[in-house]
Structures are given as structure tokens and as C-alpha cells.
């Protein structure tokens, strides 16, 4: 089996002080850097939204961050403005080793569709291209780390398992947002999909 480390959204806006800060989001950076040395392939994902993105509460008059809304593709959490293309907050955490990355997958760039997963946008059908990249490189065994456990890590891990990849999530190198029990639901959903939780 050929292995890859997938590092999900370790960006300034998801770390303390950022627009959508995850508690202790920065605490996982040294461990992720160390883990990169053990993998023959390293792939980073980067949340990358245009200003005025439809997942931002600010794009919906009267809405507040963390409200729910209904999109054409289903329910969607409304977030604070975050990871705007080219902004400081969209950059990787300054201590994250980015030189080891073979590929950076940007996602969330369609103004009308959010994209938690590294494989499909939130309509669950528009691909990012990562599946084809991995398959053509013969990579079939994925370890995932990063932010946030219950959103982008969760959706990426479940999609990868459904696509037939062997998937391990290193929870010690992830941190979650935990909205209304989303962390517990994510852990259960990942286990059910056949993701190995470590
Ligand atoms: C994420 C919410 C909105 C994540 C991205 O990286 O988990 N969460 N955009
Ligand atoms: Zn986002």
C-alpha cells in the first residue's frame, strides 16, 4: 500500500486569534510537522473562499454566525467570514512545514457551494480532483490530521472511506469546533464509515 498524510486546513483563521478559531488549533502543528517525515507523500488542503461566500453569515441578511440555513444542496452552517482568498487568515499557520507538500488542494472557491471535504463539495457530487490525483499516484492508504475534527476532517475521512481508501484519523493531531454535539456525531459517523480512529 502507498501511504499519504493529508493535512486538513491548518490555517491562521482556524487557530487562536483567527476568524473561526478552533480551541488549541495551533497545538497540533509541531506534531504534524514531525509526522510528515514518516510519509512518502504529504498533501495539504486549504479552505479558500471568495469574499461574500454563501457560507458566510454576513452574506445572509439578519443571520448570525453559527445559525443554520437551507442551501439548494441541504442544511448549511453559516460561519463568520474566514479564509478569504489571498488574506492573511487564509495562509497556513506560519509554523506549519509546507515545503514537504507535494500538492495543495484548495476548496470552497465556488461562491454558491461550501466544501468541507477534500474530495467533494457540500453538494456531495462536485469533485475537487483529489481522488483522481491519489489514484493516479497509486496512493490508497490515507492518514488525516488537522482542523476541524468535526467538519473538514470528518467530511474528508468519510468521503475517502466511501471511495474505498484505507483511512486513519489521528485525533491527537486534530482539534474540533463542537457545535451542538457535532464532535460526538462526527466520531460516530467516521467509525461507522470504517475510518480507523487513533
Ligand atoms: C471548516 C467550517 C468552515 C473546517 C472550514 O476546516 O473544518 N469549518 N470552513
Ligand atoms: Zn470554510
Automatic annotation (TrEMBL):
<keyword id="KW-0378">Hydrolase</keyword>
<comment type="pathway">
    <text>Cofactor biosynthesis; nicotinate biosynthesis; nicotinate from nicotinamide: step 1/1.</text>
</comment>
<dbReference type="InterPro" id="IPR036380">
    <property type="entry name" value="Isochorismatase-like_sf"/>
</dbReference>
<dbReference type="Pfam" id="PF00857">
    <property type="entry name" value="Isochorismatase"/>
</dbReference>
<dbReference type="GO" id="GO:0046872">
    <property type="term" value="F:metal ion binding"/>
</dbReference>
<comment type="similarity">
    <text>Belongs to the isochorismatase family.</text>
</comment>
<dbReference type="InterPro" id="IPR052347">
    <property type="entry name" value="Isochorismatase_Nicotinamidase"/>
</dbReference>
<dbReference type="InterPro" id="IPR000868">
    <property type="entry name" value="Isochorismatase-like_dom"/>
</dbReference>
<protein>
    <recommendedName>
        <fullName>Nicotinamidase</fullName>
        <ecNumber>3.5.1.19</ecNumber>
    </recommendedName>
</protein>
<feature type="domain" description="Isochorismatase-like">
    <location>
        <begin position="4"/>
        <end position="197"/>
    </location>
</feature>
<dbReference type="GO" id="GO:0019363">
    <property type="term" value="P:pyridine nucleotide biosynthetic process"/>
</dbReference>
<dbReference type="GO" id="GO:0008936">
    <property type="term" value="F:nicotinamidase activity"/>
</dbReference>
<keyword id="KW-0479">Metal-binding</keyword>
<keyword id="KW-0662">Pyridine nucleotide biosynthesis</keyword>
Amino acid at each position: 500500500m502507498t501511504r499519504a498524510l493529508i493535512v486538513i486546513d491548518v490555517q491562521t483563521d482556524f487557530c487562536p486569534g483567527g476568524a473561526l478559531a478552533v480551541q488549541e488549533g495551533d497545538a497540533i502543528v509541531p506534531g504534524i510537522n514531525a509526522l510528515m517525515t514518516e510519509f512518502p507523500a504529504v498533501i495539504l488542503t486549504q479552505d479558500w473562499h471568495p469574499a461574500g461566500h454563501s457560507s458566510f453569515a454576513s452574506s445572509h441578511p439578519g443571520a448570525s454566525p453559527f445559525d443554520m440555513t437551507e442551501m439548494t444542496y441541504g442544511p448549511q452552517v453559516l460561519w463568520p467570514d474566514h479564509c478569504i482568498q489571498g488574506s492573511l487568515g487564509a495562509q497556513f499557520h506560519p509554523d506549519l512545514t509546507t515545503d514537504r507538500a507535494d500538492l495543495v488542494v484548495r476548496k470552497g472557491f465556488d461562491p454558491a457551494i461550501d466544501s468541507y471535504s477534500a474530495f467533494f463539495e457540500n453538494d456531495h457530487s462536485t469533485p475537487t480532483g483529489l481522488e483522481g490525483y491519489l489514484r493516479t499516484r497509486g496512493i490508497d492508504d490515507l492518514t488525516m490530521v488537522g482542523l476541524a475534527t468535526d467538519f473538514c476532517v470528518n467530511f474528508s475521512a468519510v468521503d475517502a472511506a466511501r471511495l474505498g481508501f484505507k483511512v486513519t484519523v489521528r485525533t491527537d493531531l486534530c482539534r474540533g469546533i463542537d457545535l451542538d454535539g457535532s464532535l460526538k456525531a462526527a466520531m460516530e459517523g467516521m467509525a461507522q464509515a470504517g475510518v480507523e480512529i487513533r
